[in-house]
Amino acid sequence: MARSNRRVVPESRQMLDQMKYEIAAEFGLNVGYGQNALAGADTEFGSELGAVSDHSYGQYKGWGHLTSRENGSVGGEITKRLIRQAEKQLL
């Protein structure tokens, strides 16, 4: 069976992108806000939390400088939160 990364609800893209940057900020990952990032994302404490990162990434924009583990932790947290939201709706 072929695997597809096609979104079932294409309109969810903006919400998922916002969640991705919020989680990265919470984890202290310096991903910046390049042209591909969501403009004006509401990351609340993003600038403060991103500044306490123990990595020296300089002025990198995007996700390419992060390790697979760091990127995977963001994706895993997105999955956890989406499952938690779905469980709340079922109860």
Give a quick summary of the entry.
It is built from three helices and no strands. The chain has 91 residues and is an all-alpha fold.
Fold and architecture overview:
The protein is mostly helical. The chain has a domain at 66-90. It has three helices and no strands. The protein has helices at 13-26, 46-51, 68-90. It is globular. The model is unreliable at 34-43 and 49-57 (pLDDT under 50).
Which SSEs are present, and which pair or pack?
Blueprint: H1 13-26, H2 46-51, H3 68-90
Uncertain spans: 34-43, 49-57
| Secondary-structure element order, N to C | HHH
Structural class: mainly alpha
Evaluate the radius of gyration. Answer: 14 Å
> How many DSSP H or I helices?
3
Quote the distance from N terminus to C terminus. 32 Å
Q: What is the share of helical residues? A: 40-55%
Instruction: Report the portion of residues in β strands.
Output: under 5%
Q: Rough shape? A: globular
Mean pLDDT across all residues, rounded?
75
- The tally of strands reads 0
List keywords for this structure.
SASP_sf_alpha/beta; DNA-binding; about 90 residues; SASP_DNA-binding; SASP_alpha/beta-type; mainly alpha; about 45% helix
